[in-house]
Amino acid sequence: MAQYQVPQFIEVEDKIFGPLTIKQFIYLAGAGGFALICFTVLPLLLALPLGGLSVGIGAGFAFYQVNGRPLIVAAEHAFGYFLGHKLYLWKQRQAVPTEIVARQAATPGVISVPRLSQSRLKDLSWSLNIKDQAPPQEEANTPRGLQI
Q1: What is the pLDDT of residues 58-75, one digit of tens each?
Q2: Three-class SS of residue 25?
Q3: Are 54 and 35 a contacting pair, CB within 8 Å?
Q4: The dihedral of CA 67, 72, 73, 78: what is its sign?
Q5: Model confidence, pTM
């Protein structure tokens, strides 16, 4: 019976360049190369901020992690969110004018009855809801054979 070794640490990347993985080395080498080009082509006053920014971004991509994932993944998701299409599914509520609220508060004993709608089904539903809310003595006075 042949025995095979199963890799144990498949989540850990191999260290290729000393303590750096290949991705970390590429990020740092690219940032350093861009900084070198900035220092050779641009004046010193412009090269310092651009070179420092590129080295900082390269070091962040190489070493910084957001929630246990590399910064490059978070940057990719951020660009996808800001540049991608967004679909909003909620509806904005219409604000009730304060005049209507004040009028309803001024007449506490009067219940405002809504107008009947266009649909017969909605009319029947409305009448059933009103009948369910009627006091028991009113229901006793209506004959059983008569339907509203």
Answers
A1: 999 999 999 988 899 999
A2: helix
A3: yes
A4: positive
A5: 0.51
Q: What is the DSSP letter of 101?
A: H
Structural tokens at position 78: 């951020």
Amino acid, res. 145:
G
Q: Answer whether 25's CB lies under 8 Å from 17's CB.
A: yes
Round to whole Å and give the CA distance between 89 and 93. Answer: 13
Among 72, 50, 51, 54, which residue's Cα sits nearest to residue 63? 72
pLDDT in tens, 118-146: 677 777 777 777 766 655 555 555 555 55
How many angstroms separate the Cα of 53 from the Cα of each of 23, 50, 73, 100, 144? 19, 5, 19, 58, 85
Domain boundaries, the chain: 17-83
Tokens of 45: 């006053």
Amino acid at 71: L
